[in-house]
Amino acid sequence: MYFTFFMTLKNILAFFLLFTSTYIFSQENIYSSLTIPNNLKQGANAVVRLNEVEITIKAVNEMVVSEKLIITVLNKEGNDNVNAYVFYDNNVKIKDLQVLVFDAFGKEIKKIKKNDFKDASAVDGGTLYSDSRVKYLEYTPISYPYTMELTSETVTNNTAFIPSFRPVSEYYVSIENANYKINYPETLNIRNKEKNIGEVNIEKDISLGKMFYKIVNLESFKPEEYSPSILDLAPCVLFASKQFSLEGVYAEVENWDEFGKWMYNDLIKDTYDLPETTVSMIKDLVKDEINDIDKARKVYKYVQDKVRYISVQVGIGGWKPFNASYVDEVSYGDCKALTNYTMSLLKAVDVESNYTVIFAGNSQRSLEKDFTAMQGNHVILSIPNGDDTLWLECTSQKLPFGFIGDFTDDRDALVITPEGGKIQRTKKYKTEENKQQVKGNYTVSNDGSIMVRANIKSEGIQYDEKYWLESETSRDLDLHYKKRWKYINNIDIENINIDNNKSSIEFVEDINFEASNYVKKAGDRMLLTVNALNRNTNIPDRYRNRKYPLKIKRGFIHDDEIEIILPVGYEIESLPKGVVIKNKFGSYKTEIIPKEENKLIYKREFVVNDGEYPKEDYDKFRDFYKEVLKQDNAKIALIKNQ
Amino acid sequence: MRVPFFLILFTLTFAVFAQDYDFGKVSKEELQENYNPLDSAASATYLYKYRRTYFNYVKNQGFQLTTEVHDRIKIYNKEGFDYATKAIWLYKSKSGREKLNSLKAYTYNLVDDKIEDVKLKKDGIFETEKSIYYDETKFTMPDIKEGSIVEYQYEITSPFYTNIDEFEFQHDIPVKKIYAEFESPEYFNFKANTKGFLNVIPRIENKRGKITFTEKVRSTSKGFNGIGNSTSTSFETSEVEYTKQVNTYSLENVPALKEEPYVNNIDNYKSSVNYELSFVHFPNSQIDYYSTTWESVVKAIYESPDFGSELDKNGYFENEIDALIGSISDPLQRTSLIFDFVKSRVKWNGYYSKYTNDGVKKAYKDQVGNVAEINLMLTSMLRYAGLRAYPVLVSTRANGVPLFPTREGYNYVVSYVKIDDTEILLDATNKYSTPNVLPYRTLNWQGRVIAEQGGSQLIDLYPKEISNNSISMMVSLDESGTIEGGYRSLKTNHNALAYRESFNEADKDDFLEKLENKYGGLEISDFKVVNAMDISKPVMETYKFVKESQADVIGGKLYFSPMFFLKSNENPFKLETREFPVDFGYPSSINYKIIINLPDGYKVESLPAPGGFMLPDNLGLFKYNISGNDKMIQLSVESEIYQSIIAPQYYDVLKTYFKQLIEKQNEQIVLTKA
């Protein structure tokens, strides 16, 4: 009897299995590497099969983020794209975390639960302290391809940062299906901003209390030189709530003006608590200065001498600066604390300055100016100066007053004033400001060696690239110059003299060296590469199929004038002709002027302008550099006097 | 310049003015010093480094270890500000944890010729749980300026008395004075292992120590009637006297240790002493041996349940190995079948270890394991197949050279097979590794082969066989200086292993683009790699190419280097002097055979002279041979470095060797119109 019962059950199961087989097939489909469309496999180390993000804002201080990611890893490199980790801290709790692993055919081979994840402090080496922690997975794939399904859910009381819909943020990853849903109470006003969605398959559905986005079939991005960053190319949708909570601090802001007011009043204002002694000391320090800029210059110098940068992420999500009195006492702080400290000293001497939030880094990432929300990763100080603005990097103890270099130049930043916030563009270093001048001479000996004296003056971004040399040891400097002139084989440096002129923001290097066998000998001839001191050795990478526009972030001018003294006993057999090239990217000009016997003057000017051009121009840009490299290798043929 | 001996003495005495090293007794002179007179490039200097590690007896717990630390650091400039931040790692395990006590720290500055001190407060101290094994206490000092002095003092107590942290005498900044002391009771016998260039000899003396035990004694007496009952407690004390050995080190003016390129592992040269527990002997009990000789180290490792007994297991694989080798009797074939089987069956999880973690059985089942699981499994399979196979203990390059018999000296294990007189080393953690071609990480001095009975012998881990890269190229040059032609390279051993790792694990288009751009935008077509996966053969790369501007056209003549884009341009050795050996990892040879077809209507005006040169003591050689007629030129270039390691006394000749090599490779051919 029991036997029959089991048989029946088994039959029912079989029936069900048969009935639902199509359903199961389509589910399993996604775990099998065999079903990836060909165009998504191209140039990809991993393919996101399905990425479902669901954000549920339950209240202004409660947000649940659940995510399911199914990703097929095609090769070893792709392991890095799995990102099997979840950050948490005092304000973010992990509710659910699980991983399933499937083989190439979609068969489940492993299940990993939350407790099998490793737990560690998420403080990087450069940070003194942060309460951020991470749960991460260590998994060794048995073979490729394999598929991983990650399910996670976190809850946070911060609603100041709503995760964006950003299906792809890494190179060599393609997307089969990514979707994003956000649910929120109708009492909240959620804004969104779509970026770079022009050419992708996107589906959306927006109604009261709900928004939904879906992107399918997105091919991988591949890094290219001189191109915009992936952030400016990949599709994404940003979200923010008008009403939000940041570690218990409530805010309601609609535009940058209100946002600025909120930051000023709730996060910054009450931190200006310098002790009286410091106030009178700083007043005394600037008492002889009449104008505000000279006062600010003295205050900046004082700060640079007094404090140092230490990253400490505590208090209001790392968003509230330390009190000025604390920095005054310990003499260190992070960017917020040091900026705020400088500002409070300036306030004490009645110089207006403003706390400014920005994205730092060479890539010139701007704040999204038409999208009011918590943004940025760094803070600097701005000082209004008539129609102009001066920007101060308060974490540096070395930069000249008013010099920000490529770390925060030419991008939109949020300037916070007591009257409100406003978006402002930081200083752009224009082509003509980024100047390097080489003046010098070299003497060629009979044995093929050269004796060189070089004087190099750098300004603007060219200054930024070199000012750090000032504090190198002599052993490291010796190595540095050998590497800078790596195309000269046997450099023996005699003398290095460096002058960092901070008031004029000029970096001057005087170097003398000798190099044996600089000249290439061929029988009775000597081949002398004229350009010894500033040879372009780099050609932009070649791409079979350039995908992205050409972007030159910063322009520069190189201006060289070198006197060359030729060896006795040789005469010039042939001299390279002067060259003039001019195109939309810049220009290149050389001239060789014979002076008295055995003496030549070599002049060279190389200009590259910043700008953006369509991708079709990339090859022409590359040709320009190729031609420059070729001309920089132009040689004089000398022949022995008979 | 040679400085006479008396002059050195004079300078040394001169530099040492009266110093007070008590905590807080920072002098004005110290604060006024602008740079270290013995190393003006130093951004900071340890003025004083004190460490005392000793045993003390804690009631109910037994012996524990206490370490007292006191550092005084002078900061000369902004580059030295990093030394104002200190991180202390505290180890913990299921059986106990290290604890940090009595931390105090001050910053001293000279303000208006007066010494001002600022205390480190609690809100400047941060505690973080780094992982399940370590906690970290980190602090940074307040009020740091150029010229500041930082001083801190703390104590760590530890229950892990078998592990004494290494006493390090050399750092990346100079040290003016070191005082270090290690004190151990007679029950613990330690061996001191010293390494590095400095002459560090401890002063050893014996002192008396005493432990006082206090025991509670309870006695109960019953009344005669059996009702009343009185209990009394009394204390009895007993004392045990013992001898303790005190080792003290006192050093002055220790130079900074600086990084150099091609150094295997800078720690190998750092001056330090490591106390290794050799045995524990309490009164009236048996001696517990740890390790002091290589025999005892090997024995201890072998007898660990995560080593020897893991090696003895074979039930889990018998069926599959029987099926695999059943019909094969040749021992070499058996070896390679089993080696390949393990490589494809079990994947390495990235962990180094000489001990198994989850065990060989589980690794076999899950197809994932650490180094020991994979290579011990390999060894036992080979033994099961009747081969003379043994595990070999290895210290990886990152782990340093095992100079002394310690268990920590080795962190990795590979397998060794002896077939007749052929010796084969195997490592199944890397799928491109072949017999006697071990992954680069393991190429570090000598390994220790463990025999069945636990005996051991050394084996050289640096490869004997040269890794080759043979390049042949056919080039046609036209009169504008453009070249086109075909390229072929054949790579063996370590060169092949490195190539396979980069080629097989990358996107193919991307690999090709990187290759093109490595040669400044060489245009490549018909790119092919043969034997990328068949690791029994050399890996062969072939392609066709075109490249412009490969000859200078000057006054109707063509000038070019016959190696074109393949020539070397940059000497890897740029430092003027060198203190440590140059470590290439393996001996290598690269040779070029290049045939150049000349453009029509041109003839050779001059060719570079054939020639060659050698490194002394058979360390390496360079040969350059060239010949030609009006149609074509033939070039053969060979450069070989026969040794994996080259001692620092050869640095100058090695630098010159590369200088000459580059000059020779850059020599020009001149063609004129016929």
From TrEMBL, chain B:
Recorded superkingdom: Bacteria
**Domain (Transglutaminase-like) ranges:** 325-419
A Pfam family (short name) is DUF3857
InterPro entries, per this entry? DUF3857, Transglutaminase-like
Point out the signal peptide segment.
1-18
Q: Which UniProt keywords apply?
A: Signal
Q: What sequence ranges are listed for the domain DUF3857?
A: 66-194
Q: What is this protein called?
A: DUF3857 domain-containing protein
Per the UniProt record, the source organism is Flaviramulus multivorans
